[in-house]
Amino acid sequence: MMGGDYAPLEAIKGVQSYLSGIAAPVQLLLIGDKELLEKLCIEHHVPAEQCSIVHSEQVIGMHEHPTKALKEKQKSSIAIGFQLLASGKIDAFISAGNTGAMLVGALFSIKALEGVIRPAISSIIPKTDGGSGLLLDVGLNSDCKPEQLNQFAIMGSVYANLVLGITNPKVGLINVGEEEGKGNLLAQSTYPLLKENKRINFIGNIEGRDVLLNKADVLICDGFTGNIILKLAESLYEISQEKKIENAYFERFNFENYGGTPVLGVAKPVIIGHGISGAKAFGNMIELARVMIEKDVMKKMKEVLS
Amino acid sequence: MMGGDYAPLEAIKGVQSYLSGIAAPVQLLLIGDKELLEKLCIEHHVPAEQCSIVHSEQVIGMHEHPTKALKEKQKSSIAIGFQLLASGKIDAFISAGNTGAMLVGALFSIKALEGVIRPAISSIIPKTDGGSGLLLDVGLNSDCKPEQLNQFAIMGSVYANLVLGITNPKVGLINVGEEEGKGNLLAQSTYPLLKENKRINFIGNIEGRDVLLNKADVLICDGFTGNIILKLAESLYEISQEKKIENAYFERFNFENYGGTPVLGVAKPVIIGHGISGAKAFGNMIELARVMIEKDVMKKMKEVLS
């Protein structure tokens, strides 16, 4: 509850709005300053029977050094969240706090799925035809090996299938040309691995001009390229607002629609929100966590990976 | 004249329209099927005193293998163009033909500027505030070394200054975060080189969300990343057309406004057009070549590089 630029107010509003709109029996543990949260829960009519508060006396600031902060602030809301997740007291952990600390926590507090070289983070890419694609990695691994990209393809396919509801998702490799053999050394070496991978539905290379079109459902790249694409795409929403372009498509680039990004390849759902998350984003993150638990996405991912 | 999907008609129309609108004394050599071009020049009222036709009896197809085609088709319009350029009979060479053949020709028929590790190609990026940025490399070098990116920064700065008219252009490194130390191995190693480079005005890292904003004038990255950014940006024009968004900003992503991309780092101006170039693009490419000759961009680049 203490993470994000508008903490804890927007988080509380998100919890209230989510619980008032859903029939599913979710149980939320709100981690943060107990006194403050109790006061806000009453003020905002948060249903007490579905929420319990876990006190945390420290806060990791948005600009603190992730590893250092997480180590030194064991009583921060982020550290406590990972402790609860690791010990099985909660089934998923969500925060819009210090992104680095969330990543470090996900990598070191929670185990990676067996065989996973490195987890990845993904993002929804709105397609021009109304559908959604999944782009990964969007920043956890700036430099990648071909084997990692091959695993991202599997993890992304399972997620696209179970969470986005896409049957036999088409996997595309982000590249500079359509033909096999194109690209940098990484893309050149990754292509044959994806082509031979029977666990995915590989359709070939995807150029920059096809990223927003309905060519592939799962877009694979290293975290450097993915992060540039994601942030460029996100900027389209702000630009369309600034230019007063009212268009439903560009509206879909508003990250609040999606809430947060799940860390894929770890044993339990960890969802990382933008620092500027508002109530709507928090609500969407809770729903995403619920779906990931319900569909047992991590178990399925483990099965397909092994 | 034989290059591009609508050759030679759109090229002829571009020449006519360009010559009818400009006072500058340019002299054009039109390379292609002489009989056909003579007929078209008369039909389209191309001023004969400013054009002479050089006959070429072969054409390199858009999908032919670049190196093989250029070697075997010595009488193609592209091969002849490079022969004329190398021998000093023309001062600049423009084509919308086989991109690979144009790149191979630029790399091997014309010398690289002294000290240049590898030439690069650049593209104009329309900024939201109405200005223009220069992005490079956009595809010639998929894998780069830090020293190459450092040279791109110099070449891009000279071009932005002389051709785009930007005084002391701000150079940014495309990266996944703002702070020094962020990024993949390439970006991490490039940052200190740019920082120490007294010949450029380095302002730091540029994230994906800032690519379209007025933060930097010259955006530096490897050709893989640059190509993805460029093609994604270009797709915004088509998407805005499809979604019937009439907005002057997205109109600027129409590549026809810019014509073609110059090869930077070679001794003479070579301008490569899109295969789908129309008359407007051809006209803009001729004007770009004229400006590059007038400002002696290559000479200045050589001076700053040495």
Spatial strand order of the main sheet of chain A: 3-10-9-4-5-8-6-7
Query: What order do the SSEs of chain A take from the amino end to the carboxyl end, as H and E?
Result: HEHEHHEHEEHEHEEHHEEHH
Largest interface by residue count? A-B, 39 and 39 residues
Shape of chain A: globular
Summarize model confidence as the mean pLDDT of chain A. Answer: 95
Integer-rounded radius of gyration of chain A: 19 Å
The tally of strands of chain A reads: 10
Number of domains of chain A: 2
CATH architecture of the largest domain in chain A: 3-Layer(aba) Sandwich
List the helices and strands and how they pair.
2 copies of one chain form a homodimer.
Chain A (H helix, E strand, L loop, with lengths): L8 H13 L6 E5 L1 H10 L7 E5 L10 H7 L4 H10 L6 E3 L3 H10 L11 E7 L5 E5 L9 H17 L7 E5 L10 H12 L4 E6 L11 E3 L2 H20 L5 H4 L8 E5 L5 E4 L5 H16 L2 H9 L1
Parallel strand pairs in A: 1-2, 3-10, 5-8, 6-7, 6-8
Antiparallel strand pairs in A: 4-5, 4-9, 9-10
Helix pairs in contact in A: 1-10, 3-5, 6-7, 6-11
Provide a descriptive summary of the structure in words.
Chain A has 306 residues and is of the alpha/beta class. The first copy, chain A, folds into two domains: 1-116 and 265-306, Isopropylmalate Dehydrogenase; 118-255, Isopropylmalate Dehydrogenase (3-Layer(aba) Sandwich). Helix content of chain A is 42%, strand content 16%. Chain A contains eleven helices and ten strands. Chain A has an eight-stranded mixed sheet, with helices on both faces. The longest helix of chain A is centred in the C-terminal third of the chain and has 20 residues, at 223-242. Chain A is globular, with a radius of gyration of 19 Å. The model of chain A has no long low-confidence stretch (mean pLDDT 95). Chains A and B meet through helix 8 of A and helix 8 of B.
